[in-house]
Design goal:
The complex is a heterodimer of chains A (about 110) and B (about 270).
Chain A (H helix, E strand, L loop, with lengths): L6 E6 L3 E10 L4 H11 L4 E12 L1 H16 L4 E4 L3 H9 L8 E2 L2 H5 L2
Parallel strand pairs in A: 2-3, 3-4, 4-5
Antiparallel strand pairs in A: 1-2
Chain B lengths: L7 E10 L2 E11 L4 E5 L6 H8 L7 E6 L2 E2 L5 H9 L1 E4 L11 H12 L4 H14 L15 H12 L6 E5 L7 H18 L2 E6 L2 H7 L2 E6 L2 E6 L1 H5 L4 H7 L10 H9 L4
Parallel strand pairs in B: 3-8, 3-9, 6-7, 7-8
Antiparallel strand pairs in B: 1-2, 1-4, 4-5, 9-10
The chains are: A alpha/beta (about 110), B alpha/beta (about 270).
Chain lengths: ~110, ~270
């Protein structure tokens, strides 16, 4: 998957699903990201990797929030991994960087 | 549309109210990612220019292109598409008084998207957090202070993450701290959400803090468009009058004045 294309791919790491998101997450396809995150939370902890997200709007942020809320209510691990500068800027705008568990890499996220 | 093309292009725009010409062939362009401040005194034409930029008035003469669309020739569908990509924070707020704060902010999302209600709730409350009104979603507009109304209006204006945000007089009627917070927020919105922002204001301090470029309007003419430094150091006497709050000498056209006073159909 190239940096420019929009994609959301889930990888089962055994008891932990890594959802890799790439491209510009906006209203046109953020519901796919939401669906992928919620589906991954079905039976495991989830990390959402955002290193190659070049833009995210509030519908994309809403998908991340809903996933976190769902994970908390079902007692599952959840975290944002390697959030890009662009993602961080939007999270900071709403002070959500202080709300989400944030990790530098998938190993750190799985270790929690 | 070319992504580097201006999001707003105005050419030779004229506007009239009755016999009074309000804009005298204005040329104006705003590029993606830019924060443009339109400055001018009362009667300068800045509100009229804003109404044309919003597509609320069709130009009598000249063209206004918004996001590449000539608004005088646009179909209803094209205008709807343009309106989905712009947000407007009106000076008085223009909140719907029968709706709660949360429902006011969620309104554009409910009108223009098919998102599920959980996503709409999160998105609209997120915008309230951004404007420091987190948790106030159940209040009614009548319960809000002036600053809260202004911030709610801004939250609604950015509900759809617009490409282009118009902000009419963000500082008017606010205390200096809230005003400074709004200025800071405008800068952060541009940086985080890549918004292009047009602010109409007569508050010099605010204009100098947030603007990449300033357009100075006076009596229907653009005196200059330039950087903050260029405007500050302009040798244009009228601009210096504005910056130094010197009252203007109003020119009187005796014929036009008498006609306005005496003619039935003036």
């Amino acid at each position: 998957m190239s940096d420019s294309e929009n994609a959301c791919i889930s990888e089962d790491l055994g008891g932990y699903v890594l959802v890799r998101v790439c491209g510009e997450v906006d209203l046109s396809w953020s519901q796919q990201v939401r669906d992928a995150i919620l589906a991954a939370l079905g039976n495991s902890g989830v990390g959402v990797e955002l290193a190659r997200v070049t833009y995210i709007d509030s519908s994309g942020i809403a998908a991340l929030v809903e996933g976190f809320q769902r994970a908390r209510s079902s007692g599952r691990r959840y975290g944002l991994i390697a959030a890009s500068r662009q993602v961080l800027a939007v999270l900071q705008l709403a002070r959500l960087d202080k709300v989400f568990p944030m990790f530098a890499d998938v190993e750190a996220a799985r270790a929690t | 549309m070319n992504v580097t093309a201006p999001l707003i292009e105005v050419e030779k725009l004229e506007a009239w109210y009755g016999r009074r010409r309000i804009l005298n062939g204005v040329d104006f362009a705003v590029n993606p990612g830019e924060i443009r401040v339109i400055m001018g005194g009362s009667g300068s034409g800045k509100s009229t220019l804003l109404r044309h930029l919003l597509g609320l008035h069709k130009p009598r003469s000249g063209t206004v292109r918004l996001l590449g669309v000539d608004i005088a020739r646009a179909s209803e569908r094209q205008m709807l598409d343009v309106r989905r990509q712009i947000g407007v924070s009106f000076q008085g707020g223009a909140l719907l008084t029968s709706l709660s704060v949360g429902d006011n902010v969620a309104l554009p999302l409910r009108e223009h998207t098919n998102l599920d209600e959980a996503t709409i709730r999160i998105m609209s409350r997120l915008k309230l957090e951004v404007v420091n009104l987190g948790g106030f979603q159940d209040l009614m507009p009548a319960q809000l202070s002036g600053g809260m109304i202004k911030r709610t209006a801004l939250a609604r204006a950015i509900a759809m993450d617009p490409k282009l945000l118009f902000f009419d007089e963000p500082s008017a009627g606010l205390d200096p701290v809230v005003s400074a917070e709004l200025d800071e927020l405008i800068l952060r919105l541009r940086d985080a959400l890549r918004m292009t922002i047009v602010v109409v204001t007569h508050e010099l301090e605010s204009a100098f803090k947030i603007a990449d470029t300033i357009t100075v309007l006076d009596q229907g003419d653009i005196l200059m468009t330039g950087t903050v430094d260029a405007v500050r150091h302009s040798d244009n006497e009228r601009i210096q009058d504005l910056l130094n709050r010197r009252p203007r000498e109003i020119q009187v056209d005796a014929d036009a004045y008498l006609k306005r006073l005496t003619e039935e159909a003036a």
